[in-house]
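Entry 14. Ran structure prediction on the chain below.
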Amino acid sequence: MNENENENENEEEVLLGKLCGVVCDVGMKMERSRRLDQGDIAVQLAPVCARVKTNPVHGAKVISEFIMTHLNSLSADERKGKLVQKVACAGPYLNIFLSRPMMYKRVVEQVLEMGARYGFTEAWKGKRVLVEHTSSNPNAPLHIGNLRNVMIGAHTARLIESAGADVKQHFYVNDLGAQIGLTAFGYNRVYNLIKPTMKIDHWIGSMYAIMNTLVELQKVEVDIGKLADACDAGTEGADAFRDGLVAKASGADKKKGIEEYIGIFRELRDREGYEVLFKTVVQEMRDEKDIKKGGAMLNLAYERQDPEAIRIFRKMVIDCLSGVQE
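Output, structure tokens:
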């Protein structure tokens, strides 16, 4: 080996020592490679080399050659026991190839060792997070869609909690809005007239279905009282009433709306368990010129903290939630 080669080797050893010192002091950023055929881990050496004022391409070459010299000096059995199997330089990057079986083994061992704490970090330690979920409208029983929201909300909260945050989960009673006002409007008119014939949350949900159908009928200008009388007269009378309205209606959308909601009206009227509730709600609403407006006005009174409106809403909400809990 000549003098120049000795000097180059000494310079590379010095450089290697400096680079290792920087890595020990500040660490280095490792990322999963985008292409696994080019390595499992990629290391960007530019920040490290900048601290020792050397070209990152040269720095990557010096480190990769040193590591490969060491690996190549090992026996086959010794090398097989190493996590790092190969290192290659690509410009200012180091591409590191790992022993997949050893990596998998270490991951499984770590998971088993940590048990239920596996996956937990302190990345969000000190943060407080409020997760609101489910918060279904208190005017009907819970359904499969609500269960979906429970699962999404609860698991989201647990994921955030696993990052170290202090998490609280809230179920807000969503007792405001057009649906709630409309249901409360019907509930207040019939509650003292009849007794629930089913579980209370189902009863309130059924009331909303009836009230909403009546609103939709009024949108297409169907007289609810006359429709009820036609249905009481029998199937032929109901069919004739519907057909007459469809024939007079202008526009395909209106014709479709009349047929659709008269059909729903008749289906609800004949549904088992609805008989008393349906008849009472229709009787109370048949002379209401604008049922939707009635619900909206009650909603507005509740927003304005009217004592009577508060009493109506809270009674309905408590009844519905108590039924959900049964």
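The two ends are 90 Å apart (CA to CA). Will compare against last week's run tomorrow.
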